[in-house]
Amino acid sequence: MNRDVLIVGGAVMGSAVAYYLKSMDPAVSVAVVERDSTYARSSTVLSDGNVRIQFNLEENIRISQYAFDVLATFADDMEVGGYRPEPGARHQGNLFLADLEHRADALAGMEAQQALGCDVGWIDEPEIAARWPIFAGPHYIGGTFGPGDGSVDPNAVLRGYRQRAVEMGADFVEGEVAELICDGDRMVGVCLVSGEEFRAPVVVNCAGAWSPPLLAGIGVDLPVLPFMRNVFIVDSHLEWEGDLPSVFLPSGLYVLPEGDGKFLVAWSLPDDLIGFDFTVRRSKFFDRIWPELIEHFPAFDQLDIAGSWAGLYAVNTLDGNAIIGEWPEIGGLYVCTGFSGHGFQQCHAVGRYLAELILERDPVLDLSRLGPQRVIDGNPLHEHAGRLI
After folding, report:
1. Euclidean distance between the first and final Cα of the chain, in Å?
2. Whose CA is closest to 149, among 55, 234, 75?
3. Angle at CA 155, nearest 5°, toward 154 and 156?
4. What is the CATH number of domain 5-83+153-223+318-377?
5. The model's pTM
6. What are the residue ranges spanned by the domains of the chain?
7. For the chain, percent of residues with pLDDT exceeding 90
8. Which CATH number does 94-150+225-311 carry?
């Protein structure tokens, strides 16, 4: 099978790239190869679906601004055959708490966001305790609050992009890519485990946590590792009136309200398991997550685990930011990985950007600083000195 563009990985990032390619140039032939069309272990469908404006790097902030614009009309824009992929947006707001040590970093980030027109403000601890008593705690002095932040349905976004791309003529093929194929310093296609070959002068690797082994086969070494993340659904038996924000602690632990006293709770730690083992480790919750939760929010001293799951972060160990763009040493090879847990919410702007690069259009949003040259040079591009999830 010959195509103009082959995309490896058909979850939300690969589907978004396919959609934007066909939107910009209906004549371009696109094939997307996805190893599992059920997406059972895809990082997209295992995402908690949180989206936020609260980043500190200008590129990440602008990526989020575009995401909010897209999501506002997503169901209408992606409707196919009467099916409207409703993202189900809940704008409960994200509250990033800060202690005295991280106050300056939090305020610097807030000022950067405000300078780009974002609706974000600072709330002192007494006001937080008065508005949301269950989040009263002794170890923070306040936090930045983005009222437009919230959660959307990852499945709806994935299905919307995929179905719309198919309607526009993109081919989705179920199969596992065994290797990428080069001819000298140019891409020429991929070979599947089945032995079938797909030929194209442009290959986009959107395989997420599965990307590094494929790229290593052609001499591309990325500092990306598959970190296992466990998410726990807890029943707090707490009652409250009105909406609660999603709350993020300085340590990185986060608590997302689901209603009826239930919350999603997770904490990605540097010593988390690296690999493709999707086993949930409940001991992590009882030994590390719950003690941290109670220390900051005493109201959570009694709760039950109502469910859990495990999923992968494709963590860029260089700087925690995405690696997107054409690999300088191999023509026609585009990498798209290392999102470190932000990929789902960044798919819209990244999908558009990669399509613009491939079709040699001037990018609407310049994301060149997130390109792979910084990996080759060993020059990290960090958010800021403090920890931001």
Report:
1. 41
2. 55
3. 90
4. 3.50.50.60
5. 0.96
6. 5-83+153-223+318-377, 94-150+225-311
7. 93
8. 3.30.9.10
